[in-house]
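re: ur msg from earlier - yeah i can do the Phenylacetyl coenzyme A complex, just paste it... oh wait u already did. ok heres what im feeding in:
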Amino acid sequence: MTGSFEEIIARDQRIEPRDEMPDGYRATMIRQISQHAHSEIIGMQPEGTWITRAPSLRRKAILLAKVQDEAGHGLYLYSAAETLGVDREDLTERLISGKQKYSSIFNYPALTFADVGVIGWLVDGAAICNQVPLCRSSYGPYARAMIRICKEESFHQRQGYELLMTMMRGTDGQRRMVRDATDRWWWPSLMMFGPPDAESPNTAQSLAWRVKRHTNDELRQRFVDLAVPQAEALGVTLPDPVLRWNEERGRYDFGEVDWTEFKQVIAGNGPCNAQRIAQRRAAHEDGAWVREAAEAYAAKEAVA
Ligand code: FAQ
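and the outut:
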């Protein structure tokens, strides 16, 4: 791409790995892409616990495919981060030592099989709302990774909604499970969009660099507007007494997120933070022999 960084951004074209870029832009992209990659990898855990307990072969196959896609998303994203000059091993170290964040949402437990459906409906639904605009993010490798990721997230969202529809047509016990899971995941899903705009230190600069296309509050509102009719079609009530259609705004009004809880979760004190990191660390240590074998093989190939 020809032109200076500012010219490329002003023309709404993509910055590529070899282009000149301000240090702050590089640091922002490394932060966002690696936090996003970590989220995909840690995000395999809540639903992953249900693979061996899925109620049918069909549900097991769907869930396996979904969790495998999440591993793939993590890998594309680590590769996109590596184009900025960081090392994946180093990023993993920053995750398991607690130096880098991952999405708050994955620090909540998946207590019943209905949680698998609600994670697909609300968590993947929120992820899509947040990530579709990132397909036009200014950093080329990130924007391109997002296109494929969003296609797969759409399948994830639909499988969750279809699972919930099936459960809602089932027994009273199944309907109770769906309602209970919806109650537990609704507010944490709204937290996925990040702090309110007035308390978001990165948004202004990220909008100027066209890393982000919308503010956190804009996307949160968009998600609420999409989710409410879906909840109605499903036959569940969202756990917000203030939620109502605002004729004047042409949008739903909704209650205040518990930002104290959000801050606690991102500070490492959510219900499952310690467990998630411990499991990731153990998986990384258990995989040491695979990395060593791959390195030994690559060294042998290089000599041959
Ligand atoms: N959790 O100034 P802002 C998925 C941090 S989807 C934890 O507003 P920014 C798919 C933020 O990083 C989930 N930390 O920051 C899936 C910043 O940290 P700093 C992942 C949060 O970047 C579904 C600080 O707070 N999606 O994995 C959260 O402008 C189902 C200040 O915030 C992405 O990562 C949070 N919720 O906006 C997988 C999308 N919110 O500066 C499995 C890409 C904020 O201290 C199953 N990322 N923080 O390092 C983004 O769009 C943005 O980074 C935001 C935050 C919107 C998340």
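cool cool. Strands lie at 244-246, 251-253. ping me if u need the other ligands too
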